[in-house]
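quick one if you have a minute, typing this from the bus. theres a chain ive been looking at and ive put its sequence and its fold in token form underneath. please have a look and point out which stretches look like helix strand or loop to you. anything you notice is useful, everything is just below.

***
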Amino acid sequence: MSDFWVSSGHHLVDRDAGGGLVVTDDYLKVYFARPELVPPPEACPVERGLHAALLATPRMAVPPEEIALIADVDARENLGVFLAFRDHLLAHSTLEAAYLALVRGGMGTIPPLFIQQLTHLVARNAFDGIEDARTLRAAECFWRTQRVTFHEGSVLLADQEAIESHEHDRDHSPLLNMLGGPAVSELEVLTDDNTATYAARSDAHDMVFDLTHPTEGRQALGRAMAVWLTHLLGFSPAFEPVEKLAGGSFGWFLALDAEGTAIGNRVWEGETLPEADARRILALFTFTLPDHPRILAGKRGSRAFAVLGSTADRLVRIKPQNLIAGLPLGLDNA
């Protein structure tokens, strides 16, 4: 497959001998060129001078007292937040290691945009060499919010930003409005006939993923989950999509999103879900916790399940960090 997810910025970083991503000055300079950090014409001399120095030497240490001299409150906050993120990246040998440290320590202090961008970049490395377009499209859900549409018996996932842009265009076109039907039905669903076009279109995020495709729907998401875990942890369970949970007890569960956590907890407690909540379960997987030294000894070999849900307003926000934090890893092996 030709290059894909170019907007991840993977051309701006290096790889170490083990294949992990290594921060470069060019990668950091892209952040300093973002509009949130570029001083406006009316910025104070301290802000302008500090920004110029960081563009020239993006790893330069900046003491808090120097940031405090910037006159604009928002500029001080924006720079401080980014420098904390930069310092976290630089404190680790690879971006993968920096990501895993955030999973272990919590991501609450890092802006969601930075987490999204880091996930995108690490995913580009994890999926490098993957040829299957459906697996790649499923992996987009790891950092891109999806809109769910139930259409003609299928569960379709469309990129939220892409479909909102399409809906805006349709709202301003009497002809498109007159055609009716859900907006997702006017977007192109990824099929066997168009998979060859995926790479060239991957940064547009404009191809719809059919989660209920009989052989390449939830299966592709399961493969994407396995690729992600293998890259970051060195192993992965085999995720098997199922229609319902049956066949005995489970020793663990993990949730792919906040909705899945709430639903999974209720299932774990043995509750019968109301029909409205049950409809929000978009995917169920069973798997066996592997006999791997990073898994807690008492959990190895246990059957487990994974659940993906949607919000009441039909949005899917997968948290790929849950795939790691949700496994029963030993404290020294997370």
